[in-house]
Design a protein that fits this description.
The chain has 15 helices and 14 strands. By secondary structure, it is an alpha/beta fold. β7, α5 and β8 form a beta-alpha-beta unit. The chain is 34% helix and 15% strand. The strands form 2 sheets. The protein has an 8-stranded mixed β-sheet with strand order 3-4-2-1-5-6-7-8, sandwiched between helices. The chain has a 6-stranded parallel β-sheet with strand order 11-10-9-12-13-14, sandwiched between helices.
Length: 410
């Protein structure tokens, strides 16, 4: 693993939002490094987009005013100042970049960060790296953000900004094969590293002592689970169709409901149960209650570039999986994953998965997930980065400073 480094990670989510790729990686890298985690910038338009509630936007404004906060051992998260809306526009982006560079430089100086490893996961914000004079810069492409179907998303402009982010980076890492294919033209030093599993957490689903929460334990019949963020990607119509076809099954949606996704077709069905976001410690229990887990995404240009976070988490819990026909999942189709290419085939695949499941198959899924852990992903990316990192002058024996030592510099 990379060690004794100061890492500045520019993310597209806040630290305490639904945990995704940036938080999973940074929380592990922080065991041997210091991390400054830069959260998603907000703009006045954030009050209107519906992606985040007004309370979330106001909280981030308050956090910007109070400065970096300790969120984990050797991790400081900080909320940027408000930026101009439509930041993917070239002129607006240049203004925002100037504002954010000055702000980011000050945060890094206050924490004593230097000779930084700059880790950018935010495609709309190229040009920030020089604020911290990085020893090496990496662009982490986790989705095709330009294909998100929101009214305010300027696709052509965002593609241009992301091309800049790719070109200015020393290394590009992508979580999906199609992302690699489409971005290779901008940077030849590009690598496919898929998302992984929180094995330690979700393997608890198979333990006898793991308790199933009362609200999901009382559901009748077989429980078909949808786990993770519920948003524009979720194929609400497909889930509703499956629920109508099999009223003897219970469909359980567990996770953050984000944006303006219309769940009314599901709320109208008696055998669909929407639980919302649950504490992390309770998640293994919810997964334990599920007989089959779904990756039910609407098929689109966006989702064909997605490698779902939930895939290996489901496997870590030992659960059979049925998915829609996403391109990134086709190479995995087989013993651990079934794909339903029509609504009827989707329902049939769920029944098939339950009929042929066994303790042996569950154990095989867990063994596969153990090979796809976030710890292994950290090692994989480290092996890409380390040959390009220059030694730290006079710092080889310094180790990682403690939180108190870092904050004392404020």
């Amino acid at each position: 693993m990379i060690e004794r480094r100061d890492i500045v990670c520019v993310s597209f989510v806040t630290w305490d939002e639904h945990w995704g790729t940036p938080q999973q990686l940074m929380s592990r890298l922080a065991k041997r490094n210091r991390v400054l985690y830069v959260e998603q910038p907000m703009s006045p338009l954030s009050f209107l987009t519906g992606i985040r509630g007004r309370d979330v936007v106001m909280r981030q404004i308050r956090r910007w005013r109070t400065g970096p906060r300790v969120v984990a051992e050797n991790v400081w998260a900080c909320a940027p100042p408000l930026v101009l809306p439509f930041r993917t526009n070239k002129l607006v982006n240049a203004v925002n970049a100037a504002i954010l560079r000055r702000w980011l430089s000050r945060q890094a100086r206050q924490l004593g960060f230097n000779d930084v490893l700059y880790w950018n996961a935010q495609p709309s914000l190229p040009g920030l790296a020089r604020a911290v004079h990085p020893a090496l810069s990496l662009f982490h492409c986790v989705d095709d953000f330009s294909a998100i179907p929101h009214w305010w998303n300027q696709a052509d402009s965002l593609r241009a900004r992301e091309a800049e982010a790719c070109r200015e980076a020393d290394i590009v890492v992508c979580t999906a094969r199609k992302l690699v294919e489409s971005r290779r033209q901008f940077n030849g030093n590009i690598h496919f590293v898929p998302n992984a599993a929180n094995v330690e957490l979700f393997a608890k689903s198979s333990l006898p002592e793991t308790r199933v929460p009362d609200d999901i334990a009382r559901l009748p019949g077989k429980v078909i689970g949808i786990f993770g963020v519920i948003d524009f990607r979720t194929d609400v119509d497909l889930i509703a169709y499956a629920a109508r076809q099999r009223p003897d099954w219970s469909f359980a949606l567990v996770g953050l409901i984000k944006g303006d996704v219309d769940l009314s077709p599901l709320r109208a069905l008696r055998n669909v149960h929407i639980f919302g976001r649950k504490p992390e410690a309770d998640l293994p229990g919810y997964l334990k209650a599920m007989d089959v887990c779904l990756i039910a995404y609407v098929l689109s240009e966006y989702t064909h570039h997605v490698f779902p976070l939930k895939l290996y988490d489901y496997m870590a819990a030992g659960k059979p999986i049925v998915a829609t026909d996403m391109e990134e999942l086709r190479p995995i189709e087989g013993e651990h994953l079934a794909i339903g290419r029509t609504p009827d085939a989707f329902v049939a695949a769920i029944q098939e998965a339950m009929t042929h499941d066994s303790p042996e198959r569950a154990a095989a899924r867990q063994r596969e997930a153990a090979e796809q852990s976030w710890d292994r992903r950290v090692e994989q990316i480290s092996s890409i980065i380390e040959p390009m990192l220059r030694p730290r002058d006079g710092r080889a024996g310094a180790g990682v400073r403690t939180q108190a030592e870092g904050m004392a510099r404020n």
